[in-house]
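for the writeup, i need someone to sanity check this before i put it in the appendix. the sequnce is what the collaborator sent (i think, or maybe the updated version? ugh). structure was predicted straight from it, no edits. if anything looks off just tell me and ill rerun, i have time this weekend
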Amino acid sequence: MQNPLLQTIEALAKEKGIESETIITAIEDAVLTASRKYYKTTENLKTRFNPETGQVDLFAIKHIVSDVEDPATQISLKEAQELYGEEAEVDMEIEFPKRTDVLGRIAAQTAKQVIFQKVREAERENIFAEYNQRVGEVINSMVKRFENGDLIVEIGRVEAVLPRKEQSRAESYTPGERIRAVIKGVNRSAKGPQILLSRTDPALLIKLFEQEVPEIYDGTVMIRGAVREAGDRAKVAVYSRERDVDPVGACVGMKGTRVQAIIRELRGEKIDIVEWSDDPILFVTNALSPAKVQRVSIVDDKDRVMEVVVEDKQLSLAIGKKGQNVRLAAKLTGWRIDIKSEEEKRKEVEAQFGALELGGDAEGGATMEAEAGEPAVADDSLTEESVDLSTEASAEVEAPEEAEGAQAEAGVAGTEDK
């Protein structure tokens, strides 16, 4: 028949979710602490739990040596052989039993405190190890109470905290209500591990889609990104690994049943499901849904800046309430988006053309002034050339006259000869 103390230990271990050996070790440490307080000795004390009797045995350990220096912890080889025969050798240890029934009430109280402390520490360590591995998981919890705006919820046998900043402003809670939240982290504290939950983290949205959409769960459709402004709007980028599967349609479901279940869980938060693309222009165009985009151009590829032009009627829809739509699209795509209406873009282009025309006129005036100033130099050169040319021309004119005079003289001479 099992010892009643051992049965109690096993029941306590099951209740606290820890190992029986942990509690037994705690009991041994408690008796050891109480014994040291009672005996007030420098002996090397040791405790051992006896599962058959349910008692904790106490021993004083002595080391066998040739020459004894500390009688409290050492024993000579000769004395050891007198007690245990020739089997005793140097460097062996001998256990001398000591009484535990004389410890008294104060020692028992000390032992009780040590046991509680050890069990509590083991329970906290166990909880931390368990939930630290589950960060990012969605769990069901029940609202227990409110503390300074924070929500204390119960997860099985453990309490968790839903801080005010992690609560959606569109939601209100009542004690006893069941809610789903994502585990954001586990902190160590003096009062034990503190499990932090969140209802605003995008991980909650991703996990809800995994639970509601079989194609996401089996990996056919992948969620490439999700951003939220909790309580107002969220955007999810999805991608299909198979051509025949429409990623957006799979997430929406027949008549919107799948996405409506997620919207109800998030208390009416609007969700835009867009198709992911490795082409940044196409991805930004999809991310600005439900607005219709006219054209998209990359302004700065290094700094990831894009300019988007939409119809005048679509401008307010593309920007969204207080810039919400374009802000979420920028977070989802990783690009800085500058949205302009067609009218704004037309005015901007006209202003640029006007600046170019003004610049052209200024350049033309400068050219004309330069041309007007250059002939002065050219005229000087031409004048010099014209002077040279006139000199040459006059020389040519004089030469024919001389020739005519010579001919005339020759003619006169010929007449005289006749």
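The chain has twelve helices and 15 strands. Confidence is low (pLDDT under 50) at residues 365-418.
thx in advance!!
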